[in-house]
Amino acid sequence: MSRPNSRSHIPIYAAVIFASAMLPLAAHAHLNSTGMGPIYDGLMHFLMSPEDLVPVLALALLSGLRGATYGRRTLFALPGAWLLGGLAGLAASATNGNAFVSAAWFLAMGGLLALDAKLSLRMTTALAAMLGLYHGYLNGAGLGLSFTSAAALIGLIFAVFVLIALSAAFVVQLQATWARIAVRVAGSWIFASGLLLVGWAVRNR
Amino acid sequence: MSPTPKALFARHGGVLAVILFWTEAAFAHVQKGEAAGFLTGLKHPVSGLDHVLAMVAVGLWGAQLGAPAVWVLPVAFPMVMAFGGMLGLMGVPLPGIEYGIAASAILLGIAVLLELRPPLAIAAFVVAVFAIFHGHAHGTELPPGQSGLLYSMGFVIATGCLHGVGIGIGTVHRWGWGQKLVRFAGGVVLAGGVYFMWKAITA
After folding, report:
1. Less crowded by CB within 10 Å, the N or C end of chain A?
2. Is residue B63 part of a domain?
3. What is the pLDDT of residue A28?
4. Does a structural domain hold residue B33?
5. Is the peptide bond before B68 cis (omega within 30 degrees of 0)?
6. Do B156 and A192 touch (CB under 8 A)?
7. What's the whole-number mean pLDDT along residues B131-158?
């Protein structure tokens, strides 16, 4: 038996549920939370992002093959450029990296490493600067302008610095021919991954 | 008469519960499928015997030929294989892939069995041609939801490691019995290649 003056609440319920489902929330994106603060979040972001990490590793290995002077130059030029690019990116609107450009970095750095390219110190510095500015800008733009973002950027650059220091120093002291060839083989693998990355970019376009 | 608070709660409690317990999606940039993509890429070359035979044979042949072929061939193969994979991803068709893969095991097996010693450029060319078939067939088989980049990296690294296995086995080539063992391994690769060719023809 229906109650007098009772009205169905289903339309109200439906409206509330619909509003809850469609409620736009801020996307707290981009950083994996380590639970140890933004500096470690930034550090882990770099270590977990192969698009960033692999070209840096390749340039560090190449610098190590060329000698200690090159390694030292990359050690400071690349994180410095990354910081500049990151600061510029923090103030910019969020942007996504281009898959073809990422692939180009893989191809360029992997190819140079595989060939053990005899680059000049100036050319190596220029490469480090371009790589740092590009990836730093993308990282900064993804982080957005806030205090925690700046801290995350510092953690990220610290990771870049440590990776270059360890990788370049490891390669500088290699004397055996087979060991230096093994480093170049790693470059050929990076180049090969870059070729496949071009394919994925074309397929997903 | 206006309804009591208790009656109001009874009527609208359901809505309140829905709002309170509504689970929102976590947009926390967890890069889903990355680890899975890398592991899938690592496992893929190892999971196909046709691929394994050819990869190991490249390493064995390189070990027989000695420097610089011992590192030129394993460098050439993954790079050209990736080129084949790129063609596959772009949708460029390649006819007779299964025949090409089986033929690679047959010819590389013959090269190791007979310890053929062509000029380095020819050896690299032979390896490179076959690498295209392997890359085209296997480089594009990414399960949905996984990272293409990490799959590719895992795939390339696993292929390089299979070459390393071949080179490792080939280190026994310095001894007389080792030379026979490596040539026997070439015979095994050849037999596997014939089997896969027969399968491809009868399929």
Report:
1. N
2. yes
3. 46
4. no
5. yes
6. yes
7. 81
Of the candidates A109, A92, A93, A74, which has an alpha carbon nearest to the alpha carbon of residue A191? A109
Share of chain B above pLDDT 70, in %: 86
| Number of domains observed in the structure of chain B | 1
Alpha-carbon gap, residue B43 to B195, rounded angstroms? 23
The residue extents of the domains of chain A are 38-204
Residue of B nearest to A102 (CA): B149
Domain that holds residue B92: 39-202
CA B31 to chain centre: 22
Best mutation target, B9, B18, B22, B29, to test chain A (most A CBs within 10 A): B29
* Beta-carbon separation of B156 and A48 below 8 A: no
Does the pLDDT of residue A74 top 90, yes or no? yes
Give A200 or B139, the one with higher predicted confidence. A200
The secondary structure of A57-78 as a DSSP string is HHHHHHHHHH-HHHHHHHHHHH
Question: Would you say residue B29 lies in a domain?
Answer: no
At position B39, the amino acid (one-letter code) is L
Q: pLDDT, tens digit, for every residue of B1-52?
A: 567 777 777 777 777 776 666 655 444 444 555 567 788 888 888 888 888 9
Q: Is B4 within a domain?
A: no
The secondary element (H helix, E strand) that includes residue B58 is: helix B49-65
Q: Is the four-CA dihedral A153, A159, A160, A165 of positive or negative sign? A: positive
